[in-house]
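RECORD TYPE: protein structure
NAME: Putative phage protein gp47/JayE
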Amino acid sequence: MATPVCTIDENGIHAPTYQACLDYFKAEYRGIYGQDVYLENDSQDGQLLALFALALHDANSMSVSVYNAFSPSSAQGVGLSRVVKINGLRRNVATSSTVDLRIVGVAGTTISNGAAADDAGNRWLLPVNVTIPPAGEITVTAIAAQPGDMKAAPDTITTIATPTRGWQSVTNPSDAVPGAPVERDAALRRRQAVSTALPSRTVLEGIVGAVASISGVNRYRVYENDTDITDVNGIPSHSIAFVVEGGDAQTIAETIARKKTPGAGTFGSTTVTVIDAYGVTHDVRFSRPVQVDISVAIVLKPLAGYTTGVEESIKQAAVDYINAVEIGGGEARVVEWGEVIEAIKSIAGKDAFRLVSLDLSSPGGPGTPDITLAFDEASHCDIADVTVSIAP
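PREDICTED:
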């Protein structure tokens, strides 16, 4: 009879089933005590062999888990956090909301432990020391003083909370990036896969890998216009355009400047001044995504086993998919209605309800049924934006 323990070959690891383990013990037992011995489930000897088989099956399962923990594509939890260190990565911890602020003032002014405030009175903390360059303005990334999903629409952070001589004004050209929970396994796997592009053969792949590895970066998208004319997105000829959610603006700009080829242009709504090794200043441009808030209206028919827990899982599945859609919506540039349905149908309680209808909507109107995104837009959804109704 085949071995009851795990085997490893060129195709990976293979573990026998619990029944195979039990059959092995029964066969060996009968080989010792005779073929006529009674070993069914209602016998003491049969129950003892079942315990042996279960223990062996559990050990086999543990061996499979250990084997899988050595690969980023199959490792989970702490094991995944450890294995990605070989790529110089760390799992992103829970973060506060961040926002890019445009600071205007007298050249040479140093702002120490500065803070700005939005229209709702929330404080946003600047880096410890900010020095206004000769151009008279600088873009820095501020962090919300309070943890959690702090929101701020464009041009709503306009109050200088720590008045400093020479600091004249502050504003946020783009939406704040919501604080994120601890990075999920799926997101860390995607980031690990992209990080391997750092030593790539193409320059653009190398820049993408470097930007993706920056602490705090959640989603990102890069566009390249290698033609002689401005493209449909407004990107000038022979330029690259990064759209980056999260991460420090100065670090992102310095990374792009360090990795890109000489003479290649950068395009975006955020401009950061970078000083090279020779003391020459360069304006590096990239964009922060424009947040598109998406609402989901679900109508379903509950079946046996439907609970409030199932309803919460439905909402979370929709939120997780929408918040994971890449900036610009992928090749089709949409948040796909069908993918939201697939995400909901994949939850553990999928047999406890029947989906009657699902509608997506955004500030631009209802989906048809998908939601179309511009090249620099990022979809966003909160649990509160998902409603579940019971069909009459």
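COMMENT: Residues 291-390 form one domain.
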